[in-house]
Specification:
The chain is mainly beta. The chain has one domain: Apoptosis, Tumor Necrosis Factor Receptor Associated Protein 2, Chain A. It has 3 helices and 11 strands. The chain has helices at 25-28, 121-126, 157-172; strands at 6-23, 37-38, 42-44, 47-49, 52-54, 66-70, 79-88, 94-101, 105-107, 112-115, 134-152. Strands 1, 7, 8, 9 and 11 form a 5-stranded antiparallel sheet that branches. The chain has a 4-stranded antiparallel sheet with strand order 2-5-6-10, with no helix packed on it. It is elongated, with a radius of gyration of 23 Å. The two termini are 34 Å apart.
C-alpha cells in the first residue's frame, strides 16, 4: 500500500500603508541635492517607519523626487520586507503610470531602500498627478513575519476523480 503526503512553505506577513501628501510642491524644491523632508512616523508590519522625500534628488546621480524608506527605528533587525511606492491620482487611487515595487529586501541598521528615480520634476509638472501644487504618494510595506512549513491534506486520486465525475454529471443534469 502506498502513501502520499504534501507540505507547503508559507511566508507569513503583515502589511500597512502610508499616504504622504506633498502640499505646496513648488515651495519644497530648491532645498538642495541630498536634503530631505521626513514624513511623520507610521506603523506597518509591527514596525515604525518614515518616508524621506528628496525634492532635488538624493545626489547628483539620482535626480529629482527621490523617495526613500530608511530602516525602521527600534529593534528587531534584520527586517525582511517588500514595499511599493505609488503616485496617487486625484481620486486617491494608485496611478497606472508611476509605481515602483521592490523584491523582498532586508532592512537593518544601515539599510535605506527606495525609489531613487521616482519621477523627474519636469515630468511631475506636466502630469495630472500634480494638482493645485500638490501630489500624494502611497507607500505599502509588507513585512515578512515568519516562514513556516505546514502539512497539506492530499486527496487520494480516486477521491479527486470521483469528485470531478460528480461535478460533470451535475452539470449535465444527470
Amino acid at each position: 500500500m502506498s502513501s502520499s503526503s504534501a507540505s507547503s512553505i508559507t511566508g507569513k506577513a503583515l502589511t500597512g500603508s502610508h499616504v504622504l501628501k506633498i502640499d505646496g510642491y513648488s515651495r519644497t524644491t530648491g532645498i538642495g541635492t541630498g536634503n530631505c523632508v521626513k514624513s511623520r512616523p507610521f506603523t506597518a508590519g509591527g514596525h515604525k517607519w518614515c518616508l524621506e522625500y528628496y525634492p532635488d534628488g538624493y545626489n547628483s546621480t539620482y535626480g529629482s523626487n527621490w523617495i526613500s524608506i530608511p530602516s525602521p527605528s527600534g529593534r528587531g533587525w534584520p527586517i525582511r520586507a517588500l514595499y511599493k511606492i505609488s503616485l496617487l491620482d486625484q481620486y486617491g487611487q494608485p496611478g497606472s503610470i508611476k509605481a515602483e515595487s521592490s523584491k523582498c529586501c532586508t532592512f537593518n541598521t544601515l539599510a535605506i531602500h527606495g525609489s531613487y528615480k521616482f519621477i523627474k520634476n519636469e515630468d511631475l509638472l506636466k502630469s495630472a498627478y500634480l494638482k493645485d501644487d500638490s501630489f500624494s504618494i502611497r507607500c505599502d510595506i509588507t513585512v515578512v513575519t515568519e516562514i513556516v512549513a505546514e502539512d497539506v491534506v492530499v486527496a487520494a486520486p480516486a477521491t479527486v476523480a470521483a469528485g470531478v465525475l460528480r461535478i460533470k454529471e451535475e452539470a449535465r443534469g444527470v
